């Protein structure tokens, strides 16, 4: 009896430096879970990866790849997943590109996944399917295997009125309902899903959906970070030294930090505009603060992401053009991927983290920062799933530039005692959301059902 995790992304990427953990909330959270209990991870191999055997070092994990043609990969991942479902679920309706071919490739690839899982599945195994790339998979698997089948959706499930934009909405919901237990980060997303299921004619009672003879349970299971790992990182002497060197680089009293994949849902452009507004409205901070924005390249084959990069480059250039002085660099923009060790040093060095997505399923960066920081302030978007759980952060509306500028000023002036009080409360909440206990809770609920 073992665990089979199925996700589009493998938990590792093969780079020139060898195997490195994949970037993104799903992989960061689930890898330690599977490492701890062993099992198989089934993931797509991007087109072009063929022949390469990207296999994790950890012997406890078996990695199964689903090899796709270029056409399949482009239609399923670049197309239906990232040009349709991602913008739809994050309420970026103008970015949706509805094309029938994308859905056909999505269906074909979900079938390929179903075949791959059915091949390795043994009686008694638990299958745990992840995220928006594989909405049809639980339904397809239900026809092929028996045994516990869970599904977790890592991004917001939108209101049913928005979901109905999809011509294939019913098929997608029916696909999800192939699972025995469906999980979301928050009750808001779970309720949106239940209303969507009811709209498509599935009988809903409380948090249960009837599908023929079966009952599907829908629950909220907020996912956190690997707290053990971040605690270890935060204790290392190298981290302290690296954090001090980052502060020397900043060369100012106060350091502000942003860390994201370069994605239009993350509100990076709006955050930079808010920083510009802050420097205009609170001129006494000029020369005394620096903002480090880290953005890791993401989904660069999708036009909306390339356009975002252009827009962000432009605002960065404008801010530097207006405020840069010989003795002060107000903003540094790092367009690159870091290791967890390096990111933790940035977290430790920063006085304030500005985590202001326009919409986000959870946002693990917010948790990583609050857990690693020793005296910082977390400024968090009220449109991130994490805001439902991290009540002691300074919550802001990421569309309100003036409000964000004011919150930044408040965060920078916050007295030590208040910062400590908020951080301690946040750390306790993050401890309770630990990724391993998330998996334990979800899987025990699945098996108990
Ligand atoms: P998403 O899953 O949408 O990317 P999250 O904030 O939930 O957003 O998760 C992002 C994960 O990716 C975090 O674990 C974070 O540490 C990691 N990450 C983000 N930016 C970088 C970066 N520049 N380099 C390395 N890891 C990053
Ligand atoms: C979000 C999604 C994940 C995805 C990650 C990185 O966290 O919920 O499913 O893996 O972003 O995006 P990518 O497209 O690079 O896998």
From TrEMBL:
| Pfam families registered for this protein in UniProt | Glyco_transf_20
Family as reported in the entry's similarity comment? Belongs to the glycosyltransferase 20 family.
Q: What name does this protein carry? A: Trehalose-6-phosphate synthase
* Species, as recorded: Thermus brevis
């Amino acid at each position: 009896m073992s665990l089979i995790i199925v996700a589009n992304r493998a938990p590792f990427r093969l780079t020139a430096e060898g195997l490195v953990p994949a970037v993104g909330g799903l992989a960061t959270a689930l890898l330690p879970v599977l490492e701890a209990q062993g099992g198989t991870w089934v993931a797509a191999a991007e087109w072009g990866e063929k022949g390469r055997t990207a296999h994790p070092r950890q012997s406890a994990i078996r990695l199964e790849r689903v090899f796709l043609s270029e056409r399949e990969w482009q239609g399923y991942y670049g197309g239906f997943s990232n040009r349709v479902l991602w913008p739809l679920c994050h309420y970026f309706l103008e970015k949706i590109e509805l094309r029938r071919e994308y859905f056909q490739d999505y269906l074909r690839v979900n079938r390929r996944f179903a075949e791959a899982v059915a091949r390795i599945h043994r009686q008694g195994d638990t299958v745990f399917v992840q995220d928006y790339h594989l909405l049809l998979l639980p339904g397809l698997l239900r026809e092929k295997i028996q045994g516990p089948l869970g599904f977790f959706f890592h991004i917001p499930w939108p209101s049913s009125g928005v979901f109905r934009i999809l011509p294939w909405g019913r098929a997608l919901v029916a696909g999800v309902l192939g699972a025995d237990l469906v999980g979301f980060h928050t009750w808001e997303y779970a309720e949106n899903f239940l209303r969507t299921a009811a709209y498509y004619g599935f009988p809903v009672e409380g948090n249960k959906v009837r599908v023929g003879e079966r009952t599907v349970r829908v629950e909220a299971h907020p996912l956190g970070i690997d707290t053990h790992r971040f605690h270890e990182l935060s204790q290392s002497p190298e981290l302290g030294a690296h954090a001090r060197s980052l502060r020397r680089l900043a060369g100012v009293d106060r350091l502000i930090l942003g860390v994201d994949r370069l994605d239009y849902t993350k509100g990076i452009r709006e955050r930079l505009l808010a920083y510009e507004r802050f420097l205009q409205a609170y001129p006494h901070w000029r020369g005394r603060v620096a903002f480090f924005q880290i953005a890791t390249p993401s989904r660069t084959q999708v036009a909306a992401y390339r356009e975002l990069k252009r827009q962000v480059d432009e605002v960065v250039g404008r801010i530097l053009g207006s405020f840069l002085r010989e003795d002060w660099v107000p903003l540094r923009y790092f367009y690159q991927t870091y290791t967890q060790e390096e990111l933790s040093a940035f977290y430790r060095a920063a006085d304030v983290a500005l985590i202001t997505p326009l919409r986000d399923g959870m946002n693990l960066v917010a948790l990583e920062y609050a857990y690693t920081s020793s005296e910082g302030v977390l400024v968090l978007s009220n449109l991130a799933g994490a805001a439902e759980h991290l009540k002691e952060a300074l919550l802001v509306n990421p569309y309100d530039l003036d409000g964000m500028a004011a919150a930044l000023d408040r965060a920078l002036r916050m007295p030590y005692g208040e910062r400590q009080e908020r951080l301690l409360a946040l750390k306790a909440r993050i401890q309770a959301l630990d990724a391993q206990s998330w998996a334990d809770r979800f899987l025990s609920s699945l098996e108990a059902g």
